Amino acid sequence: MSQYEDVMNKKAVALRYDENKDVxxxxxASGLGYMAERIVEMANENGVPVYExxxxxxxxxxxxxxxxxxxxxxxxxxxxxxxxxxxxxxKAREAAEAKERAKAATEDEEDSGEREE
Length: 117
Fold this sequence. Notes:
The protein is mainly α. About 55% of the residues lie in helices and about 10% in strands. The radius of gyration is 16 Å and the shape is globular. This is Type III secretion protein.
C-alpha cells in the first residue's frame, strides 16, 4: 500500500462526555485521511488519550457531529475508557489534567470578559 493510500484509509473520531450535560458521549470531531491525522495530532498535543479501533471508528465516522453515540455502542466506549484507566493510567491522568487546565483557562477568560464590561 502506498503512503497516500495509508493516509487516506485512516479514520478518527473524537468524543466528549460531560456528565453534567451529556446523556452519552458526543461526537465532536470526525474525519478521514488527512483530517483523521490532524484529529489524532490535536489529541496528542492536548494530552487526550488515543485508542485505535478501526471497526469502531468506521461506525462512528458514519454519525453526524454533535450526535450522542447510540446505546448499542456504550459498551465499546466503556471498554475503551476502562482500558485507559487500567492499562494506561498515566494517559488517563494526563487527560484529566489537560481537561482541568482547559476548564481553568475558560473560566479565566470568562472572568476577564466580565471585568471588561
